[in-house]
Design goal:
This protein has 11 helices and 13 strands. By secondary structure, it is of the alpha+beta class. Strand 7 and strand 8 form a beta hairpin. The radius of gyration is 22 Å and the shape is globular. It binds adenosine-5'-diphosphate and magnesium ion (MG).
Length: 396
């Protein structure tokens, strides 16, 4: 049930060996770019609020080398597929995975960076589409690798922004900046508070001896997700407009207090009030959670996670029976510090902080219950916080 991942070095080595087999030579460089989790701060990004992500010990590994011509030779180790194109003519590949790489090449070119032809092999152990942002990891790996390969001298934030833009423009997914930011800026034993308005960020210690991040994958993605996401955005904007009638200086829910919501939104529209108060409270919870970390009070931090779930489920209404079931089942269990749904909602994973020695018993109890109640298989990923995107020295 519990998926044990291969060690970093063995995966990176297999990518490098594949590179050798396909392209030969020893002149390649290898980078690692991790997936991410978000501890707290959900649906706050587009409201100009705060998020608290961290990079994890699951990553994309990418080996690249220069070519003498303008050609692109890309190999997906995991999918056992390859793609050939030219840096002079970037077109959507028609089968998705190359587009993340091509999109980054396009954004580098848009910044005036002359990307030459290159060979590339990549693979990894981030489960695709499970909410750990394998796509951002792939984009950041590409940006970092090409920056180094061609000596562009871009700073990490520029690489974050161009990776996000690659996904927006070339892949056509309107993602925010958190995923690429966390992949690039992650730091071992730290979470990062990112201010989505100013992009200022602060590291907070997350040295939690014996505690693991356990993701429980509900294995569902309800079709409501994208339409409800758009509705939530509109509801938040509607709330801001109501406050603006009295306070024209307000630009987003970031500038709004609970008192203002009570005074100007609650009397007009109860639903909008509930949505907006979740967002304002979630930002406040995140701030308390960082204070908990500074005090070393992980139990209090865990309670904020439960509070976040409660708000997402009851006020923002983006949870679903499967996610509520999974959070309900871990709550109060031996060795569980806290948990909540993670990501946009209506499926995906819950994120839980669990003492290492309690994990097996917890999974053995919940997995059959989940199967019986929801008629679905539970997937379990166990992670810990790791460094962000970096070059790997030759592992052989
Ligand atoms: P998420 O980012 O939540 O994991 P997405 O749907 O945004 O899910 O991105 C997943 C896509 O990213 C995959 O369908 C694939 O095209 C690409 N991708 C990410 N990692 C890999 C990998 N290791 N091998 C091949 N493709 C990958
Ligand atoms: Mg993604």
């Amino acid at each position: 049930m519990t998926l044990t991942m291969q060690t970093t070095s063995s995966l990176a080595l297999r990518v490098q060996e594949k590179f050798q087999d396909v392209f030969g030579g020893r002149d390649h460089l290898t980078v690692r770019s991790p997936g991410r989790v978000n501890l707290i701060g959900e649906h706050t990004d587009y409201n100009h609020g705060f998020v608290l992500p961290a990079a994890i010990n699951k990553a994309v590994y990418m080996a690249v080398s220069r070519r003498a011509d303008d050609e692109l030779h890309l190999v997906s180790f995991d999918l056992d597929r390859s793609y050939t194109g030219s840096v002079k003519r970037l077109e959507p590949s028609g089968y998705h995975w190359p587009d993340y790489i091509l999109g980054v090449v396009q954004q580098l070119q848009a910044l005036g960076k002359p990307v030459g032809g290159f060979n590339c092999v990549f693979g990894g152990d981030i489960p695709l589409g499970s909410g750990m942002s394998s796509s951002a990891a792939l984009e950041c790996a590409t940006a970092f690798a090409l920056n180094q390969l061609f000596g562009f001298d871009l700073d990490p934030m520029t690489m974050v922004k161009l990776s996000q833009k690659a996904e927006n423009v070339f892949v056509g997914v309107q993602c925010g900046i958190m995923d690429q930011f966390a992949s690039m800026f992650g730091r071992k034993d730290h979470v990062i508070r990112l201010d989505c308005q100013s992009l200022e960020y602060t590291y907070f210690p997350f040295k939690t001896e014996g505690i693991r991040i356990v993701l429980l994958d509900s294995n569902v993605k309800h079709s409501l997700a994208s339409s409800e996401y758009n509705t939530r955005r509109q509801q938040c904007e509607a709330g801001v407009r109501l406050v603006q009638q009295q306070h024209p200086e307000v630009r987003s829910l970031r500038d709004v207090s609970l008192e203002q919501l009570q005074a100007y939104v609650a009397p007009v529209d109860e639903l909008i009030y509930r949505r907006c108060s979740y967002v304002v409270e979630e930002n406040a919870r995140l701030q308390s959670a960082t204070a908990d970390l500074l005090r070393g009070d992980i139990a209090a931090f865990g309670r904020e996670l439960y509070g976040s779930h409660e708000g997402l489920s009851k006020k923002y209404e983006v949870s679903c029976p499967e996610l509520d079931f999974l959070v309900g089942q871990v709550r109060g269990q031996q060795g569980v510090i806290g948990g909540r749904m993670m990501g946009g909602g209506f499926g995906g994973c819950t994120i839980n902080l669990v003492e290492e020695e309690a994990i097996d018993a917890l999974v053995e109890r919940i997995a059959p219950l989940y199967r019986k109640t929801m008629n679905k298989e539970l997937k379990v990923y166990i992670g810990q916080i790791e460094n962000g995107t970096s070059a790997l020295t030759d592992l052989r």
